[in-house]
Amino acid sequence: MTGPQTLSQVFDRLEKALSALDDAVDRSADTRREHAEADEEMQRLNADRARLAEALDDAEARAGRLEEVNKEVSRRLVTAMETIRAVLDR
């Protein structure tokens, strides 16, 4: 009777090994899916970063142009005030 018990034990061990293999395959598939999702998120973040960097560059360029216009307006106001003072002083 030890023969059938040994065979039963072998089948039990085989079943446990197959179950462990199935679990390992499931974990591997989950890990791959999580990596794929992380890669997709990284691509979205990189696209957002690029878009934000471009928007920042545009904003900095606009700020520079506004600063130059502000300086020109200030210069013209000073010139106009000096002209008005000169006319009033006469």
Automatic annotation (TrEMBL):
Name the record gives this protein: DUF4164 family protein
Keyword annotations of the record: Coiled coil
Species name: Roseitalea porphyridii
Coiled-coil region: 21-76
Keyword Coiled coil: yes
InterPro entries the UniProt entry points to: DUF4164 (IPR025310)
Pfam (any one): DUF4164
